[in-house]
Design goal:
The structure holds two protein chains of two kinds.
Chain A lengths: L16 E3 L3 H17 L10 E3 L9 E3 L2 H7 L6 H21 L3 H20 L4 H22 L6 H12 L2 H14 L4 E6 L6 E6 L1 E4 L9 E4 L13 E14 L3 E2 L6 H9 L4 E6 L1 E2 L1 H9 L7 E6 L5 H15 L21 E8 L3 E7 L3 H17 L3 H14 L2 E7 L4 H24 L1 E3 L3 H4 L2 H10 L3 H13 L2 H9 L4 H9 L5 E4 L4 E4 L6 E3 H19 L4 E3 L10
Parallel strand pairs in A: 4-15, 8-10, 9-11, 10-12
Antiparallel strand pairs in A: 1-20, 2-3, 5-15, 6-14, 7-8, 8-13, 13-14, 16-19, 17-18
Helix pairs in contact in A: 1-3, 1-4, 2-3, 3-4, 3-19, 4-16, 4-19, 5-15, 5-16, 5-19, 6-7, 6-13, 7-13, 11-12, 15-16, 17-18
Chain B lengths: L2 E5 L13 E6 L3 H4 L2 E5 L2 E5 L7 E2 L14 E4 L3 H4 L2 E5 L2 E5 L7 E4 L7 E6 L3 H4 L2 E5 L4 E4 L7 E2 L9 E6 L3 H4 L2 E5 L2 E5 L7 E3 L8 E6 L3 H4 L2 E5 L4 E4 L7 E3 L8 E6 L9 E5 L2 E5 L7 E3 L9 E5 L9 E6 L4 E6 L3
Antiparallel strand pairs in B: 1-28, 2-3, 3-4, 4-5, 6-7, 7-8, 8-9, 10-11, 11-12, 12-13, 14-15, 15-16, 16-17, 18-19, 19-20, 20-21, 22-23, 23-24, 24-25, 26-27, 27-28
Classes of the chains: A alpha+beta, B mainly beta.
Chain lengths: 564, 329
């Protein structure tokens, strides 16, 4: 019987090798151009699609139009020198995708232009290190010019335009505009699979964490009066536990001995609390039984939930945030504290606490609002300071939770692949809107980059050395590259349109959808400033690095994990 | 400057009763219909003769206990819709016959304590109302008070002490919330809130006033609990003290002339009494009113503006209301 899976081909036993200039530059250039040329058709509203074979043979190819996703799927090239160039681009583009969610193809096109021109210049005898320094100077000027063009973006309409500039889907963009007008730049947005074809949204009030009830026996059916996580918009009832005006105890202890809970219950009753929520890492069956035994709606209503997880860092962060919200003082095992230390002062307070088997939520914490605002302000400062994408995501999620509400966007589609594609698109557009809210917007359609050309030209006129002149000339030309690709992809003649744009007033560009030269910012064609700035910065830095790479060293076997 | 007290209208209040006036509201046609309301710990009271006599407004509800009324607002279209809204713990009461009969709209549990009520300047068209609460943030109604929804996205402090709507709310959808830790702003009709950079050490903010010409002058006044009065002339971005050293520490209420800044008159109700500025806050003079010793003015209403001779209703900490008229300088 034949298998649908084919035996993988024998891998050639490749010998280690070292490649020097000029072969190294030419080899990398081949790879850079292969991968960037794959990405180029996906730029702009009239973009093409890239079909990529699935890793498992058979089935339809993946039809992709997101630079970040395409590079993620991109496999190794057989030409090992070229492969190094392609993987260099892959890493650069993926970083942009991870951090900004957009601007990947603009980055790739900018990089390609600078790199190709640079290879030619250096082959003619330019000094690579001097040239790279001048590129950096030029980049700083461009970034300053972009910053001058950035305008804050506010209001649903403007945010919708930013979203549409990424997703080109009016109905999705309209919802994202509304959502971010409400949740703000750090707000919590959950993108979930919807039932219908059209996207929809709902808003959940309050703050909630993963980690629900420690015992399902604590849940009861309740009428669903408002949107809530873990429930479908069509659900009429939900299973959950609720407590109003409750005391809350926070701990990361694994409570095994029921005796340990006695001081907690005593302290709660002594303080006159009528409801108590225990947040703990775990409760033994015996400890849970004690809580159930003492659970009395007239005297002390109790439920217990898992501390936020999954990791200990997440738990510590979650407990810290809960403490600020509720005014509780956590009992921490790391500090050798036990529940015997609990006094009424350790309890925080919540107006309404709820939990189901997945989530635990709070509406209205009793913490000091000034301290909470300071805490959020510190988290925001850390978010802006930190560069690592994972850390930033975690911080954004924490801030988003603390902002007091969550938006859920329901995204549908005809097939599972369609739904995945739409979810990814919504996420990407959402990231771009966040970026726009954080650092403003600039005119889109490549105009913001064209607007930087006069400043680069001034640098060129004052350039003292041949390397500087070459660097600024190359950057000047590269700034046109994204617009040219955008025009090509939309079926316009770049040379003809660029000539029109050059004679138009400042800020004017070619609206490829309307097919005319216009004030792009006024027409609502906008790009998030942060996306474009990072693309420029990354393109120039990466090009400088690639152009000063003289030697390629290949190991015996290609690195396997790149084939993901 | 002094206030000439035209009449002390404490007769309706029992001397020595442990009551307090939380809020006052008057009909936009006060000079013609004389209708005004006083929200007290003992309930809502209504006067139909400019404050000369008062009757319990909840009489038709046949309540067995007092229904403490912490907020009251009269519809801007009162002349035609006769709508009045009263905030009580856990609910908003609404009347469509100038306070004769009432309908109840429950707020979501746990029962919030309503601290303030405001109506959209364009209420006749949009039917939008806001209720600030002591622990549960802001509730919004867009169906003339029938249903109320909590909208607190971004409102990091749910202890709302005052609300102020832009006079141009129908267009700019802007409103401000004074809270324990400062001030928040919404620019989308209360669906989301953002922090206003009001200095944290000056909070709590307990009163707000917004310029009738806010669209052009961007002027917002904030009265603090312990640090006097502050002004922003750029829609809340930068703040400066106003009347520093001239006003009491706690600014309980602020009123601006309806045609401010053409008539740059500001009335501030402070812990020291009533202060009036006729030059936009540069100089202040104390206003003497017949406030009993050991009592304080805790609520104020100026149904016909702040021009000399216009009536002022002053709610007192003993539950009394006095009507005064502004005198001449």
């Amino acid at each position: 019987m034949s298998s649908r899976y084919q035996k993988p081909p024998e891998e050639p036993e490749l010998t280690p090798s070292v490649v020097f200039q000029p072969s190294s530059a030419r080899g990398m250039q081949r790879g850079v151009n292969i991968l960037v040329n794959v990405l180029r058709p996906t730029l702009g509203p009239h973009h093409g699609v890239v079909a990529i074979d699935r890793v498992v043979p058979g089935g339809t190819p993946e039809m992709l139009d997101s630079g970040g996703v395409i590079v993620r799927r991109f496999l190794q090239l057989p030409d090992r020198d070229a492969d190094m160039g392609a993987m260099f681009v892959r890493h650069m583009v993926w970083r942009q995708h991870e951090r900004e969610g957009d601007g990947t193809v603009t980055l790739a096109v900018l990089f390609q232009s600078i790199f190709n021109q640079g290879v030619t210049y250096l082959a003619a005898g330019g000094n690579a290190m001097q040239f790279r320094r001048q590129l950096d100077i030029g980049a700083r000027t461009i970034l300053a010019e972009l910053a001058k063009q950035a305008r804050p973006v506010e209001g649903q309409e403007a945010l919708t335009r930013v979203a549409e500039s990424v997703c080109f889907e009016p109905s999705l963009a309209r919802l994202l505009g509304e959502i971010f007008d409400i949740i703000g730049e750090y707000g919590r947005l959950e993108i979930r699979e919807g039932r219908g074809l059209e996207p929809d949204r709902e808003y959940v009030e309050g703050i909630y964490w993963d980690g629900g009830l420690l015992s399902r026996a604590m849940m009861a059916p309740m009428e669903k009066t408002a949107p809530m996580p873990g429930a479908r918009p069509t659900d009429k009832t939900v299973l959950r536990a609720e407590a109003e005006n409750a005391a809350i105890l926070l701990t990361n202890l694994d409570i095994q001995d029921p005796e340990d809970l006695a001081p907690v219950l005593q302290a709660a009753m002594d303080a006159g609390h009528k409801a108590l929520v225990v947040v703990a890492r775990n409760l033994s069956d015996a400890a849970m039984a004690l809580l159930m035994l003492n659970r009395n709606p007239e005297k002390l209503w109790i439920f217990a939930v898992k501390s936020p997880g999954p990791g200990s860092d997440d738990e510590a962060d979650g407990l810290t945030d809960m403490a600020h919200l509720t005014g509780a003082t956590p009992i921490l095992g790391d500090a050798k504290q036990t529940l015997r230390d609990v006094t009424p002062a350790h309890f925080g307070r919540v107006r309404l606490a709820w939990a189901n088997h997945e989530y635990f939520g709070i509406i209205g914490g009793g913490g000091d609002p000034k301290a909470l605002r300071r805490h959020i302000s510190e988290l925001r400062a850390a978010f802006l300071r930190i560069d690592a994408a994972d850390e930033r995501k975690k911080l954004r999620a924490r801030i988003g939770k603390l902002m007091g509400g969550t938006a859920t966007l329901w995204v549908g589609g005809f097939t599972p692949a369609d739904i995945e594609f739409n979810k990814e698109l919504a996420e990407r557009a959402g990231d771009a809107v966040r970026g726009a809210l954080l650092e403003g917007v600039v005119p889109g359609g490549g105009v913001a980059l064209l607007n930087c050309q006069p400043a680069v030209k001034r640098l060129l006129k004052q350039a003292p050395t041949a390397d500087a002149r070459a660097a600024f000339r190359i950057l000047h030309r590269a700034l046109e590259a994204p617009t040219r690709v955008l025009l090509e992809n939309s079926g316009w003649d770049p040379s003809e349109v660029m000539a029109q744009v050059q004679h138009a007033p400042a800020g004017y560009g070619f609206d490829v959808v309307a097919g005319k030269v216009t004030d792009l910012a006024a027409a609502g064609v906008l790009d998030p400033a942060t996306v474009l700035s990072r693309a420029v910065s990354s393109a120039v830095t990466s090009a400088g690095l690639a152009l000063t790479t003289d030697v390629l060293v290949h190991k015996r076997k290609p690195v396997q994990e790149l084939n993901t | 400057m002094t206030l000439e007290t035209s009449s002390a209208l404490n007769d309706a209040w029992e001397a020595g009763s442990e009551d307090v006036v939380y809020a006052l509201a008057a009909s936009p046609q006060f000079d013609r219909d004389g209708i005004c309301f006083a929200g007290r710990a003992s309930g809502l009271y209504r006067s139909a003769n400019g404050g000369a006599s008062w009757q319990p407004a909840y009489a038709t509800l046949n309540l067995s206990d007092d229904l403490s009324t912490s907020a009251v607002v009269v519809s801007p279209g009162f002349a035609s819709d006769r709508a009045v809204f009263a905030g009580v713990t856990g609910a908003i009461l609404r009347s469509h016959d100038a306070g004769a009969t009432w309908f109840l709209s429950l707020l979501p549990s746990p029962p919030p304590v309503v601290s303030c009520l405001v109506a959209s300047p364009d209420y006749e068209r949009d039917g939008v109302l806001f209720a600030g609460t002591m622990e549960d943030g802001v509730f919004r109604s867009s169906d003339r008070g029938e249903r109320w929804v909590r909208w607190n996205f971004g409102l990091l402090d749910l202890h709302v002490l005052a609300l102020a709507l832009s006079p141009d709310f129908a267009q700019d959808e802007t409103l401000f919330a004074a809270v324990e830790s400062g001030i928040f702003r919404s620019t989308n009709g209360g669906r989301a809130w953002r922090e206003v950079p009001f200095p944290e050490d000056l909070a709590p903010v307990i009163s707000l006033a917004i310029s009738p010409d806010f669209k052009r002058d961007g002027l917002l006044l904030a009265g603090t609990e312990a640090h006097g009065l502050y002004v922003s002339r750029d829609r809340g971005r930068a703040w400066a003290a106003l009347g520093e050293g001239l006003l009491g520490e706690a600014v309980n209420a602020i009123l601006l002339a309806p045609d401010f800044p053409q008539t740059p008159t500001i009335l501030a109700v402070t812990s020291d009494g009533l202060s009036l500025s006729v030059d936009g806050g540069s100089t202040w003079s104390e206003l003497a009113a017949d406030v009993p010793p050991d009592e304080a003015v805790v609520a104020v209403s100026a149904p016909r503006g702040l021009h000399p001779g216009a009536p002022l209703l002053l709610g007192l900490s003993n539950g009394g209301v006095i009507r005064t008229g502004a005198g001449r300088q």
